[in-house]
Structure to design on (410 residues):
């Protein structure tokens, strides 16, 4: 179906070659109408579909954004599946682009043939109703997000408002005066923010970041990550006493380069919600809590070598209970010599280290590497696993005799 779209089509495109039935062997019928979207055009199209017994339709005319729903309704009234329809946009994609008539006509022909090929692959679809959730997630608690949340809530929608910072209002709340009336920004924003925070249909989540969105409108899932305030919002009254007691000063992100703030407190003066938030990265208490506990670490540096000819395991350590030679016990049932000797050595270490929390770092070379690796998970010395296994690097030079135990601080 070719539509002239009033005066908008076939001024540049040459209609003659395109309206010939023989030019389209893949089409069952071809017709031209002046204004197909008019009431008269729609009535004619409905009759034509019945007369030609057509169940699929290609319309070369204007944009699908403008009249696809119009022609779907015509298909439905004619008893056809409305989804077996393909619109080809000759107006915006060819006619209004301009150029030479011959090239434009060739381009129009290619688009129409593509539409015919596509509609042949359309599958019938049926309209159906599904249950949807009318709730809305508004991302961003600035001026636009607050206005959207209030508009939706006033239409009896349940709204979840997500804001990544500790306070609502965004940049607008930080302005001094607002154009064009030069009113105070906080005076302008605070009534709206107060209504949002106390509206029964609006739930506000601050310090929330969207991490995933799945589904579609009416049936969606939004996943958000919430950063902790470290302050009980139900008990905080915004008195700023915590801020006054805090010894840490950090750069104020709300006043770049113009001042500082404490590690805990409101985002800025007059921020809503009026609840303090803690900067965990700056807080000394949080930073110390996140740091691994310190222990006196005795670094046991020893080199295990295996003399295959003597079947002997030598532990070069003059302060430990060194195992000099266990070749005589090589025939002990059930355990290889090297593994049994390592067990004895570590048992001696355990007896000497019951009073402190020590970490034992075993360094081996040769056959001892595989032995220590195999037993690393089995052996615990005062609650700390034996490891890592490997030769010391250049910065840790191998110890000489008499330097096997070195007390260090982590």
């Amino acid at each position: 179906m070719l539509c002239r779209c009033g005066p908008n089509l076939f001024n540049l495109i040459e209609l003659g070659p395109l309206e010939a039935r023989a030019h389209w062997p893949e089409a069952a019928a071809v017709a031209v109408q002046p204004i197909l979207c008019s009431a008269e055009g729609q009535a004619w199209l409905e009759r034509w579909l019945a007369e030609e017994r057509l169940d699929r339709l290609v319309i070369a005319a204007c944009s699908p954004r403008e009249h696809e729903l119009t022609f779907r309704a015509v298909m439905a009234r004619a008893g056809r599946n409305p989804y077996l329809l393909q619109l080809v946009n000759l107006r915006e994609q060819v006619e209004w682009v301009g150029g030479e008539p011959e090239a434009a006509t060739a381009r129009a022909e290619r688009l129409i043939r593509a539409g015919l090929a596509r509609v042949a692959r359309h599958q019938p679809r049926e309209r159906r109703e599904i249950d949807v959730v009318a709730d809305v997630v508004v991302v961003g608690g600035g001026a636009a997000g607050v206005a959207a949340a209030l508009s939706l809530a006033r239409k009896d929608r349940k709204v979840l408002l997500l804001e990544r910072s500790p306070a609502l209002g965004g940049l607008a709340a930080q302005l001094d005066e607002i154009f064009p009336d030069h009113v105070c920004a906080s005076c302008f924003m605070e009534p709206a923010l107060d209504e949002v925070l106390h509206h029964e249909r609006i739930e506000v989540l601050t310090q929330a970041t969207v991490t995933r969105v799945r589904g579609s409108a009416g049936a969606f899932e939004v996943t958000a990550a919430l950063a902790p305030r470290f302050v009980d919002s139900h008990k905080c009254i915004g008195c700023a006493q915590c801020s006054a007691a805090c010894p840490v000063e950090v750069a104020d992100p709300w006043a770049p380069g113009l001042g500082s703030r404490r590690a805990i407190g409101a985002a800025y003066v007059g921020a809503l919600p009026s609840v303090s938030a803690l900067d965990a990265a700056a807080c000394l208490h949080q930073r110390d809590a996140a740091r691994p506990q310190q222990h006196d670490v005795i670094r046991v540096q020893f080199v295990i070598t295996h003399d295959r000819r003597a079947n002997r395991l030598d532990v070069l350590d003059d302060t430990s209970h060194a195992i000099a030679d266990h070749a005589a016990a090589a025939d002990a049932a059930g355990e290889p010599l090297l593994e049994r000797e390592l067990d004895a050595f570590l048992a001696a270490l355990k007896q000497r280290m019951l009073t402190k929390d020590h970490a034992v770092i075993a360094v081996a070379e040769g056959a001892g590497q595989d032995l220590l690796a195999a037993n690393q998970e089995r052996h615990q010395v005062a609650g700390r696993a034996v490891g890592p296994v490997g030769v010391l690097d250049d910065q840790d030079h191998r110890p000489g005799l008499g330097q096997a135990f070195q007390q260090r601080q982590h």
